[in-house]
C-alpha cells in the first residue's frame, strides 16, 4: 500500500515496527475499534494496549508474543466472509505484507509506544558524518547521515544565480534585481551567502511573504462570508499587525498569546487588543431570519478548530459530534476547549488610526493639558482671595433662611426593593441617591416603593433631584450621549397596607423646577400626556431639581407605603442615570439655595464637615461672576480637548457579566445541550496549569499551547516553516500530526529543530528560518536525479531541494515586479485591482460593487487584494489561493489550463507584458539578443542559452513582421510595431515554467 | 522523445508528485482496488481530468443540475394540497406549531395560505403539475417527482451549501467537483465541470461551485453569457491567433528545454496544461456558437421568447428568459462534447412576499427550456446517460408569511421540513411520484429523502459507491454524503 512507503525508519527499530502496526490499524481498524466509544463495535478497542489485550471471553485480540493465538490475526486471515476483518463491505482489505507486519509486531510483544508527536521533545544527539565537509550546520548532519547510510551523496549546492532567486522567492516572494544577482555571484567572501540572507530577513517584504503564510491559517478575509457577505472595511488592520509582528520577529510564543488572548494580558496595549482580531476572521451570517446563537456557536467552534489546525496540527472537528475516531480526543475534551472561547465576546475596539495620528494626538494633548492645569490653578487662587466675600454671603443667606417660618423641609426616603426592575438595576448610594445600572430598553418607567419619616408633619409634595455624575455620559444626569433626559410623567400613590395590589393615586396641584428646557416645562410631567415632559437641555452635566406639590396634604399617619412612577418615554435612553427622591413638608417659600446648601449653612461654621465646606465653597463660586468666567473658559477648553483619531476594529473581549456555561452539544447541535464541562486541556498532551483554578480563560489556553513542555506545537511550527522552504514538510501532512497522519521523514531532525526553536532560538521565527536556509540541505540543487528516480521518487530522503510553483499572489507580484509596475508599499487598506466584468455581480443579489483602484493601488502586492468570500478574485482562486472560510495549513498546487489562460491572456498579465516590453526596449542595450538576455536576467536571474535566445529572437521577428503588416493591431496591443512585437514575445517569457517556479 | 513519453510514471508517482499529494496517494490505492482509476490509461501525469472507470457499470455519464436558488414554493408548483386551500386562514395546528422554527413568520398570528394555482394531471402517470409549469407536465412520464425532500438547514447560504456539498460547512467540494474528481471528464478541450448563471447572483455566490479542499482542477468553471465564454479565453486585444500559436510553440520549446535539464515532471504537466488551454481557446467559442442550431431548436428552448411585462420583481433583468433558455441549450451542447457536470443556477425564488406574480414570472422563465432540454436529450438518445436534476436548498411554508405582524399574506417562509425536487434521465425511473407530505404540506408522511440520500443515489447511478468516493483531508476521509446517505432503489430504472 502506497501509504506505507512513507513510514520512516525510526531510531528505534521496535518503535518503527509499532508505528507501522499502528498506521495499519488506524487506516483499517480504528473506525470501529478506536477511541470513539459511540461507534465502537464489539466493545473492542485496538488503539490502546489494554483494549487489544482485553479478555473477550476466553480469547484476546492480541496475545503478546503469540500471533497464532491472537484473534486479530485470525480475523485478518480467515476465509470466512462473515468473520473477515475489515468487513468486505467497507471496501478495505489488508495486504499479506501488512498482515505480516502486524503478526511480527505481536510476536515482538505488541508494543504500544506513545504516538511520536505526543512524546516530549528531547534533543537527539547530532549524528556524525563521514564527510563533514559537506555540512553547514546540524540540519545537514541529520539529513546527510541518512544519505550516507544508503551510500548516497547529497546534491551539489545550486549555482549562485539559482540561490539568489530561491532566497528571494522564499523570503520575499519577489524577483531579485539582476545587478544584485551579479554582485552576489562576484562576491567571493565566505559570508556572501549569509549577507544576502540577512539582507532579505531585514526587508519589510519579508513580513508580507511570511505574513501571508500566516493569514492562510488565520482564514483572513475582507468580508463576512455568508450570503450578503458584507465588506469588513477595517479588517486590514489585523493583516498589518501580522506583517509588523513578523518583520519585528515577535517571538512565536508571544505572537501566539497576543492573538489568542491579547485582551487578557495585564494592561493590554492597543496592538495587543488588535491581535485578537485573529478570532474575528470567522464568518458572520446576517441573513434574515437567522438564529444568532447558532452562528455564535459556529464561530466559537471555528475558533477552536482553527487553533487546533494552526498550533496542534490536529483536526478537532470530528470531536464536535462524537469522540475522535483516530486520535484520543473525547467529545468532552472538545467542549473543554470550547469553554475557553465561549466567553470571548465579539466587540469593537477604537484603534488609533495610525502611528502618525497617535503621535500628533499625544503632542496636542500635552499642550491642551497644560492650558487646563493653568486655568485650574487660577481658579484655586481666586477662591482663596475671595474667602471674605464668601463668609459675608454665607451669613446673609443663613439669616434669610432662618427668617422663613415653617420652612420647607425635605425628608429622605427609605426605599423598599422596587416591585419590578424591568431592564434596569438600582444602585442605592450612601447619599440616598440612586444610580441606574445596566439599562437595556430605550424607554422605561421606574417604579419605586418607599416610606418617609416626617414626624407629625403632613406630606405636601415630592421632590425629584436629577443628579450629575462623572460616571454618566456627558456627566448626566440623563443616560443619552449628551446627558439630557425627559421625565414624561410623574405619578404618586399610596399603597394599601393590607392588599399591596391596591393603591390610591395622589393628584398634584403644581410643579416647579430650577430649570426647564424650552418647550419641555416641568408642568408637562404631571399633565397626563406621555408625549410631553420635563427636560433640561442645554443645562446638562449639572444637578437639577423639581418639586411636585400635592393637591391635598397627606397626613403623616396615612403615609405608609408610598409609590412613585417615573415614566421616561422619549426617544432612546432619555432616562435619568442618577437621581434622588425626597418627601416634602412645610409651606413653600423662595427657593434660595438647594437643600444640601441650606442644610450646610444651618450648621454652625465650626461644626461643618469637609464635604459641607466644599459644598458651600462650590456653590458660592458657581454664583460668583469672576469665578464663573474662569469656569466657563475651562469648560470651553475641555470641550475642545483634542480627539484621538480612531478606527473601530473587530476584536474579542472577555465577557465579564453573566458568563456562559459550556455544555457538551449532542451531535454538535447548539439546541441540544448535554452535561456541563469546565475549561481544560487535552489529556493526550502535557498537563494544563491555569493561573487560577476555577476561572480558566483564553490566556491560560494560549500559555498552555506555548508551554515549553508542549510536545506538539513546536513540532507543528517548525514543520510549517520547513514546508515553506522545501515545498513539503518533514511531516508531509502538516494538517495532521495524529495517528493517521504521515510520520516525519526525519524524526530526529524534526525533534532537534523543535527543541532548538524553543530553547535556543527562544521562539524566534527569523532564527529558525535563518538556520534552515543556511543549511547545505536547503542549498542543494533542485535538479531531479534520474539515478534516484526509483529509490526516492518523492525526495523523502532530501537528496535534493524541491522545485515547485509559487502561490497565486506571488505569480502576480513577480509579473508586476519584472514589468516595473509593482508598488512596494507595505501595509494599509485592501485594494481593488481590475476584476473581470460580471464577477462581482454573481454574489448575493448584485449587492457588491468592485470599484477598481486607481494609480499605485492597481499594482499593490497580491496579498493586499480585497478578498470577498463569496466572490473572490478569480486570478487568485485559479492558482489555489485558499477560500478563507476555514484555516488552510497547506495550499494545493494545481496545474490547470485555466491557470495557463490567466497568465497568457488576463488583462493584468497582458498589461504587465506590455510594460515589460517598454522597459526592455528603453534599456540602453544594443540588439535583440542583448535585450532578450536582459529579459531573462530580470525573470529568471540567468542568461539565456543560445537556443533559448534563438527561440525568442525567432518569435520576435515573426511578430515584427506580422505587426509590420498590421500596424492597427500593433496600436491596439502596445502602441507601435516594435513595442507590440516585444510584447508578443516577452509575454511568453513571463509564462515560462522557470519564472513561476521556485527552483 | 517528448517529456510525456519519457516519463511513463506509474499512477502512484503521478499522484504523489501532483498537487493532491498524500491524500491523493491514499486515494489512488483505494480507488485502484475498487476499479476506479484501474483503466490502466492513467499512465502519465498529463491530466487529472482524464476519464476514469467507476466502481461499477452505470448508465449516467453526465449531469445537468438545475439549481433554483432561493427555494421555490413546492405548494404552488408540484405538491397540490386541497386541504390547505380549505383550511386557508386558520392557524397551524398546535401540535405542529410547537415544534416549528421560523425565519420571519410570527407563529402566534400566522395563518395557513392556500394556493391560487390549479393543478392538472399529465401523461400516463397522471403526475400533477400546477398551471404555471405546463411544459414540465408534458415530460411527466420521464420525470421522477420527489415530494419528500427535507434539509437540515434553515437559512439560504448554509442550505445551498448542503444541497451542493452534502454538508453545510464551508471548504467542502461541491457535487460537480466530486464527480469530476471521481470520473474525470470525457472532454479533452473543455472543462469537466461548468457553471451557467442567469439573472442575479445567489446567496452562496462562488462557494456553490468551488472545489473546497480538492485541487482547483475540480472546481466549476463559470461560462458567461456575455463577453468571452470562459474568463481569459480571448487573446489580449491586438494579439492574433497566429502569434498565440507561435508563442505557445516557443513556450513549449523553452519549457521542454528546461525539462530536459531539470527532469521535473511538473514541467511536463505545465506543457500539457498550456496545450489544453490552447485547445480550449478553440473549442469554447465553437460551443457558444449557436448558429448551427436549427431555428426550431432555438424556438423549442424558447430563446426567442419575449420577457413578459408587468410582472416579475426580484431578479428581473430583462434578459433572464433568454439567458435561461440559452443556458439549457448550452448544457446539452456541453454534454454532447463530454462535459461531466453542468450546474445551471437561477436565483430569484425567495418569495417571502408577492409570491403569485413573481413565481409565475420565474416559472415562465424556466418551464419551457427545461422541458425542451429533456425532450431534446431524449430525441438525441442522450437522456439515458444524462441525468437532469431540478432542485433547491429547501421549500416554502404552507403558512402565509406575516413578517412584523403583517395581516396580508402574499408570500411564504423558509421550509426545510418537506419540499419537492424533480429528476430525469441517467437511469432514473420516470413517471413516478416518490414520497408524501401531510395533507397541508407541512411534514413528511412517507419516505423522507435527505440531500445525502439524493447524492448517494445520484452517485450510484454514475457507478460510484458513495461510501468509497473519498478524499483524505486533515486526517479524515471525506465524502459527498458526509456520514450518511442511502441509495434509494425505487428511483432506479
Taking Cα atoms only, what radius of gyration of chain A do you get, to the nearest Å? 39 Å
Number of strands of chain A: 17
| Averaged pLDDT of chain A | 90
Largest interface: A-B, 112 and 105 residues
The assigned structural class of chain B equals alpha/beta
Number of helices of chain B: 14
Going across the major beta sheet of chain B, what is the strand order?
6-5-7-1-8-11-4-12
Question: Count of helices of chain A?
Answer: 33
**CA distance, first residue to last residue of chain A:** 31 Å
- Topology pattern of chain B, helix = H, strand = E: HHHEHHEEHEHHEEHHHHEHEEEEEEEHEE
**Biggest β-sheet of chain B, characterized?**
8 strands, mixed
Protein architecture, described:
The complex is a heterodimer of chains A (999) and B (493). In chain A, 39% of the residues lie in helices and 11% in strands. Chain A has 999 residues and is of the alpha+beta class. Among the domains of chain A are: 2-113, Orthogonal Bundle (Cytochrome Bc1 Complex, Chain D, domain 2); 257-354 and 645-709, no CATH class; 409-588, Jelly Rolls (Sandwich); 907-998. In chain A, strands 2, 3, 4, 5, 6, 7, 8, 9, 10, 11 and 12 form an eleven-stranded antiparallel sheet that branches. A two-stranded antiparallel sheet of chain A has the order 1-13. In chain A, α18 (595-602) crosses α19 and α30 (928-940) crosses α31. Chain A is globular. Residues 1-14 of chain A have low confidence and may be disordered. With 493 residues, chain B is an alpha/beta fold. Chain B has a single domain (62-230, 294-491), classed as 3-Layer(aba) Sandwich (Alkaline Phosphatase, subunit A). Chain B has 14 helices and 16 strands. The longest helix of chain B has 25 residues, at 355-379. Mean pLDDT of chain B is 85; it is low at 1-46. Chains A and B meet through β16, α28, α29, α31 and α32 of A and α2, α3, α7, α9 and α10 of B.
